[in-house]
Write a structure and sequence with these properties.
The complex is a heterodimer of chains A (286) and B (374).
Chain A: H1 3-27, H2 31-52, H3 58-80, H4 86-108, H5 116-121, E1 131-134, E2 137-140, H6 141-159, H7 161-169, H8 171-176, H9 181-203, H10 205-222, H11 226-251, H12 255-273
Antiparallel strand pairs in A: 1-2
Chain B: H1 2-10, H2 12-37, H3 43-62, H4 67-91, H5 96-119, H6 131-134, H7 142-161, H8 163-171, H9 173-178, H10 183-199, H11 202-222, H12 228-252, H13 258-276, H14 282-309, E1 319-320, H15 321-328, H16 332-341, E2 344-346, E3 351-354, H17 356-370
The chains are: A mainly alpha (286), B mainly alpha (374).
Chain lengths: 286, 374
């Protein structure tokens, strides 16, 4: 397989893996949590790296997942004190954790290939060079990681589809059925964290936000059914991945940046033609 | 330590950078209070990310890296970004948080695309543009400070001038409308000031961390006071202190980047304020709860003793500790407390009785709370 095809394949995997949990994030009014989590995983990655001394160890994913969940918990704690509103709590927790990560890198790991540019921006163009042998064939590591994460995300959503749906649209009803909304909440947040960390070294944390929010937002304009919103998000995600890649080739610019831009362009196109824009029930919920 | 600090301060670059960080802290801290009141804390995050393509476009058009040009580009892009967020939220089914997250990531990605595009052109000298990503306080120069100072002064002046109006539209937009104030125009003005306060900080702390400089000082200041002008003064002070603190510590610790150091300083101030601010602080709240809990236990045991005694001839009839334990949980510690307060006395190892003042208090309690006589 050529490098160009491999990059597109990784991009598509990342886009779909991000779009699925993204649907629930925007339906639950938690889109900004993707921003918070994708930044706040940095200290987890750095600490796991400082302990293991290995950049490709599974502990890094675990560390990142833990610091993602820690972010959610911290925001929740700050909110329940009643001293801060939720948005202020988010806006304080993630820059603090991100700064902690940056400082740890600068002070303790300055000479290692783990720089903040890479975390924020990623460089998809290099992904095909980092290869692993699996089943006798050499494949890019990022593709394997993202495929696994995509399967986990899809499995979680399929298994708990009913529960997620109910706890998204009617928390009270869900808890009266014994679905434990908070368990699902943290499950979903853990999913977002692992997706963010799996994607970060390929595409960077900002693109994670774009891919988690823009395709589901476009899908939200197109449909009112949860199941078709998931499908549309995945499809739009694929378009973003492939279209963004070719735009980057054309302009000789950053792939992650071009994909985020493409996400914005596709959203604007959908917005211009979406049927729900002219329907009477604006801002109604699906 | 003090020596090292005074050496740092005599250094020209450090003085410049510290001045810049102070200016940033004051402006962002003050404007952040309005943002927090208006529940727009995360808007700052979106604006600072949205400013990136503005910087790149300004450079592409003019080919100049003069701070005024770049700040102007950043400001226009940031303002356009808020405009889009408001439009999306008002006119489509898209919710506010989704609009914020989308705008932030798409604009930032677009800016990044432009930056890499500029970088790979052979003719352009783009060095310095990417300092906006993470901020490069150490690279601040005299002319940057002049721009920051100029814009900061205008922002603070306008804020003081329209103080009453801004206060009113932040607390009660409807009342402002009824009073005939041009709410929309004021809203735009405040947003413009907000955007200005953000763009002057981008070069120091970078787009990623700028939101913290908006939210954190205001959030910390909020815990200490209920008055807006006090809150604003405190926020500006906290912002300035962490700015200087960050600059100094990054001068003292090798490799410590300034932007993140500033953010860690202000975060520490937030944590301290949440814990120890009088009245609102968590430590105070816990102490209050503990005290009222103690008061409750004291009263409960007093009333128990009084009721027991009323079944006997004398009110100071002694009761065994075991009976009291059975009535109101573990009474031993409360009994000792009653003794120190002079409300009860120990008769022997096992027995306790009410004192005169204890009887008095218990009678009052019983009459007041349960409305029953002895």
């Amino acid at each position: 397989m050529s490098a160009s095809l491999e990059i597109q394949l990784i991009a598509v995997l990342v886009a779909v893996a991000c779009a699925l949990p993204g649907v629930f994030l925007i339906l639950r009014g938690m889109a900004m949590m993707s921003d918070a989590i994708s930044h706040a995983i940095l200290p987890g990655i750095v600490i796991a790296f400082l302990i293991t001394g290995n950049l490709s160890s599974g502990w890094l994913i675990l560390g990142a997942g833990l610091s993602g969940v820690l972010t959610v918990a911290l925001v929740e704690v700050l909110r329940t004190t009643g001293l801060l509103k939720e948005d202020a709590a988010i806006g304080i927790v993630f820059p603090a954790l991100f700064s902690l990560g940056v400082v740890l890198i600068a002070v303790f790991a300055g000479d290692v290939h783990l720089d903040t540019d890479a975390v924020l921006l990623g460089e998809l163009a290099f992904a095909p060079f980092d290869r692993h042998v699996i089943l006798g064939r050499e494949v890019p590591r990022a593709a394997v990681v993202m495929a696994i994460i995509l399967v986990i995300n899809a499995a979680f959503i399929t298994l708990f589809y009913k529960e997620l749906k109910m706890s998204t649209f009617d928390v009270a009803l869900a808890s009266s059925f014994g679905f434990a909304p908070s368990v699902l909440h943290y499950g979903l947040m853990a999913l977002v964290s692992t997706t963010a960390v799996g994607a970060f070294d390929a595409v960077g944390s900002i693109l994670v936000v774009a891919l988690m929010v823009a395709p589901p937002a476009a899908a939200y304009l197109l449909t009112r059914r949860l199941s078709s919103m998931l499908v549309w998000s995945a499809l739009i995600g694929c378009l973003v991945a492939v279209g963004g890649y070719w735009m980057a080739r054309l302009l000789d610019a950053s792939i992650a940046g071009s994909m985020a831009t493409m996400a914005g362009i596709l959203f604007m196109i959908v917005l211009a033609f979406a049927p729900s824009r002219s329907s009477g029930s604006r801002r109604g919920r699906a | 330590m003090m020596d090292a600090i005074s050496t740092l301060f005599s250094d020209y670059t450090v003085r410049t950078v510290a001045l810049g960080a102070t200016l940033l802290g004051i402006t962002a801290g003050a404007l952040g209070c309005f943002a927090m009141l208006r529940r727009q804390s995360l808007l700052g995050d979106a604006i600072s990310h949205a400013a990136l393509p503005g910087i790149a476009i300004a450079f592409l058009i003019t080919g100049s890296k003069s701070p005024l040009v770049l700040v102007l580009g950043a400001g226009l892009a940031g303002w356009f970004g808020t405009f889009l967020i408001t439009g999306l939220t008002r006119r489509t089914r898209i919710t506010h948080d989704t609009a914020l997250a989308m705008l932030l990531s798409v604009f930032f990605g677009f800016g990044l695309m432009l930056l890499t595009f500029i970088q790979r052109r052979p003719d352009a000298n783009q060095a310095g543009l990417d300092s906006f990503l993470f901020g490069q306080a150490a690279a601040l120069m005299q002319r940057d400070i002049q721009v920051m100072f100029g814009i900061g002064c205008v922002v603070l002046f306008l804020m003081t001038l329209f103080w009453k109006e801004f206060k009113l539209i932040s607390f009660d937009a409807e009342a402002a409308h009824t009073l005939g104030l041009p709410v929309r125009a004021l809203d735009h003005l405040l947003t413009a000031l907000f955007v200005s306060a953000i763009v002057i900080g981008l070069q120091t702390v970078g787009v990623v961390l700028m939101s913290a400089m908006i939210i954190a000082p205001a959030a910390a200041a909020r815990q200490w006071t209920d008055r807006l002008w006090v809150m604003m003064g405190l926020a500006a002070f906290f912002g300035a202190v962490s700015g200087v603190g960050g600059v100094l510590s990054s001068g003292l610790v090798p490799h410590l980047p300034t932007g993140p150091a500033i953010v860690l300083f202000i975060s520490a101030i937030v944590v301290f304020s949440l814990l120890f601010a009088p009245n609102r602080g968590l430590a105070f709240r816990m102490m209050r709860q503990w005290r009222s809990g103690q008061e409750f236990r004291v009263d409960a045991v007093l009333v128990d003793m009084y009721r027991l005694a009323s079944q006997h001839e004398t009110v100071d009839h002694p009761h065994s500790e075991q009976v009291l334990n059975a009535m109101s949980g573990n009474a031993r510690r409360t009994l000792h407390l009653l003794e120190t307060l002079g409300l009860a006395q120990r008769i022997d190892d096992e027995h306790w009785a009410l004192t005169e003042s204890g009887t008095e208090r218990a009678r009052g309690l019983v009459e007041k709370r349960w409305g029953e006589g002895p």
